[in-house]
Specification:
Blueprint lengths: L15 H9 L3 H12 L16 E4 L2 H4 L8 E6 L15 H18 E11 L2 E2 L11 E2 L1 H12 L1 E10 L10 H6 L11 E9 L5 H5 L20 E3 L14 H11 L5 E4 L6 H8 L3 E6 L2 H7 L5 E2 L1
Parallel strand pairs: 1-10, 1-11, 2-3, 2-9, 6-8, 9-10
Antiparallel strand pairs: 3-7, 4-5, 6-7
Helix pairs in contact: 4-5, 8-9
Bound molecules: S-adenosylmethionine.
């Protein structure tokens, strides 16, 4: 993976006694060095960067626009990135270029996320159109590659939640096999999408994050998704303007389980802004990034500050 971690830090060279010493003397400089060790990322200069306190829209390429946000000011990130060149997207000259771009944006996400907080990425394998019948179509396991990138930029794996869609809503791949019954031609209909749950690498336990919030903000626990294989039978939402819209129910669930009321929450690939609308309803402060004017024009009508 050619992830552009220019300021990457070589952990192997670190002396463990030196790290212990840094932990004892709690100066800002030492804290930065510790974070460099744990996250592999240098803290960026905070000048010209903003802490966000109101619903905000960042128009443009999120690799650039996220640079405006201060380090460690976002409480939770949920997003569905473009699935390489699926649907109407054809922005990338190769799959490697696509992964490099995702890596640069996720690196920014790691920088602005508060220590120990969560990021959830909704992805699934994608198939690209073949140029003709004589070619085999290529299927990319995007979620496996995202795992590598997420680890590389400073997150660690927590869970994979499976979102199951009704079979009638997905492309039919099984028809050929059902006609012939020939082994090897079996291609099941893909009804699942992954929600990849990762936490920012941090030198403290989750309790440390939770203790900053009042008990009053706890969720009512009725109707909790209790199983360790969370299967959410949620229909994909159809939208006349955007081809890949989040169902509101999905946004509600992740916001409920992974953020508190009052938190600042980010979607770096906002599309039609479903996440932002649900976040507002649930009393979170949404930050949306989107580069397509078609969607930003509509989002501008929904009372977002521009940054
Ligand atoms: C899968 S869609 C997200 C749909 C969204 N979840 C919704 O509910 O509408 C991905 C979106 O990311 C936007 N996008 C792609 N690359 C981007 C980039 N580098 N910066 C900002 N937005 C980007 C696309 O224009 C597209 O609207």
């Amino acid at each position: 993976m050619k992830c552009a971690l220019k300021e990457n830090y070589c952990k192997d060279n670190i002396n463990i006694e030196y790290i212990k010493q840094l932990g004892k003397e709690k100066s800002e400089e030492n804290l930065n060095k510790l974070l460099l060790f744990y996250n592999g990322i240098l803290p960026l200069n905070a000048k010209n960067k903003r802490k966000i306190i109101k619903a905000t829209l960042l128009k443009g390429d999120s690799e650039q626009t996220l640079l405006k946000i201060q380090n460690k000011t976002i409480h939770f990130i949920f997003t569905s990135p473009p699935y390489y060149n699926a649907r109407m997207y054809s922005d990338y000259t190769s799959y490697e270029k696509y992964l490099e771009k995702m890596c640069s944006i996720l690196k920014q996400c790691n920088r602005i996320l508060k220590d120990g907080h969560f990021i959830i990425i909704n992805v699934s394998p994608v198939i690209t159109k073949r140029p003709g019948r004589e070619f085999e179509s290529v299927r990319y396991p995007i979620h496996f590659d995202f795992h590598k990138i997420l680890e590389e930029v400073g997150f660690y794996f927590i869970d994979e939640i499976i979102w199951i869609k009704p079979e009638y809503t997905v492309p039919n791949r099984i028809a050929g096999y059902l006609q012939t019954g020939m082994p090897l031609s079996y291609k099941p209909n893909c009804v699942t999408e992954s929600l990849l749950v990762y936490r920012k690498k941090t030198p403290f336990l989750l309790d440390e994050n939770i203790r900053h919030y009042s008990r009053m903000l706890a969720n009512a626990v009725e109707n909790t998704d209790t199983s360790n294989c969370w299967c959410w039978y949620i229909s994909p939402k159809t939208d006349k303007d955007h081809p890949a819209v989040f169902p509101e129910k999905l946004c509600e669930k992740v916001l409920k389980y992974y953020s508190f009321s009052g938190d600042t929450v980010l979607d770096p690939f906002a599309g039609s802004g479903t996440f932002g609308r649900v976040a507002k309803k649930m009393k979170r402060v949404p930050v949306l990034c989107e580069m397509d004017n078609k969607y930003t024009k509509k989002l501008e009508e929904e009372s977002y500050d521009n940054l």
